[in-house]
Write a structure and sequence with these properties.
With 295 residues, the chain is mostly helical. It folds into two domains: 85 residues, Tyrosine recombinase, N-terminal domain (DNA polymerase, domain 1), CATH 1.10.150.130; 179 residues, hpI Integrase, Chain A (Orthogonal Bundle), CATH 1.10.443.10. The protein has 13 helices and three strands; from the N terminus they run H-H-H-H-H-H-H-E-E-E-H-H-H-H-H-H. The longest helix has 20 residues.
């Protein structure tokens, strides 16, 4: 059974060109299912039927796993078994007629423009670390990049004259994202001064580096965002993705068209971007309720 798992993961890497993080997510899902069916005494994928898959999903629900995570796991299994059937390793697909768990629609949490301004004002721009942090926060809010895309930016993917970055998104797909003059100025100051002071003669192709001369990691940047959130006195939980949500919502609130926001965010499906129109609408309703004399 493990051999077919390896074949599928190789297929995702070579033919689908999926990024390492995405493949790791698929691998984790498949290993959970593999452990489940082997615990049930099954020794081959041919023995797996709809009942085993439904039992697996039921066990996850019993563990309190959210419906969105269970839906993702079922989607992973669909792709895996479809691959096995197409490659003639299996004669039937046990998940063909199974339906995904019903998903609750959650509106992403966003910051007000005022909260964003307070957050961006947090770093001490008189220090190299502060200049770097300010440039990262400004760029994140100006472009709506995912945190993985932000820390992966190399020097060759930044054009300060024209004002854009080339992001490497999901599935290793590239997209060009404009950054705006404020972010470009913060980035220019960081590159011309603080970056070299952080590197101290060491070489790195990474745009954002630590005082050890290494590329900034997602985990380290998450910690920085938490620190600046507390410093700004913002009560809600803020992550790098909160700035991505805020970027999209603020653009739509000010009249940006949905298709342009979709391109900047790197969404393959515009229905994913449409959630931000709901966020903007709910925010306007709350403002109306708070300030209208008959709200």
């Amino acid at each position: 059974m493990e051999r077919y798992l390896d074949l599928y993961l190789d297929y995702l890497a070579v033919e689908r060109g999926l990024a390492a993080n995405t493949r790791a997510s698929y691998s984790g899902d498949l290993m959970k299912f593999h452990s489940h069916v082997t615990e049930q005494g099954l020794g081959s994928w041919e023995e797996v039927g709809p009942a085993e898959v439904m039992g697996f999903l039921a066990s996850l629900q019993g563990q309190g796993i959210a419906s969105r995570s269970r839906a993702r796991l079922l989607s992973t299994l669909r792709g895996f078994f479809k691959f096995l059937v197409r490659e003639q390793h299996l004669t039937g697909n046990p998940v063909t007629r199974l339906t995904s768990p019903r998903l609750r629609r959650y509106l992403p949490d966003v910051l007000s423009v005022e909260d964003v301004e307070r957050l961006l004002a947090g770093p001490n721009r008189a220090t190299p670390q502060g200049q770097r942090d300010a440039a990262m926060l400004e760029l994140l809010y100006a472009t709506g990049l995912r945190v993985s895309e932000l820390v992966a930016i190399t020097m060759g993917r930044v054009n300060l004259e024209v004002g854009f970055v080339i992001a490497l998104g999901k599935g290793s797909k590239e997209r060009i994202v404009p950054m705006g003059e404020v972010a470009a100025e913060a980035l220019r100051g960081y590159i011309l001064g603080a970056r070299n002071r952080l590197l101290r003669g060491r070489l790195s192709d990474a745009l954002f580096v630590t005082s050890r001369g290494r590329a900034m990691t997602r985990q380290a940047f998450w910690k920085l965002v938490r620190q600046y959130t507390l410093r700004a006195g913002i009560q809600k939980r803020v992550t790098p993705h909160t700035l991505r949500h805020s970027f999209a919502t603020h653009l739509l609130e000010r009249g940006a068209d949905l298709r342009s926001v979709q391109m900047m965010l790197g969404h393959a499906d515009i229905s994913t971007t449409q959630i931000y129109t709901h966020v903007a609408r709910e925010r306007l309703k709350r403002i109306h309720h708070m300030y209208h004399p008959r709200g």
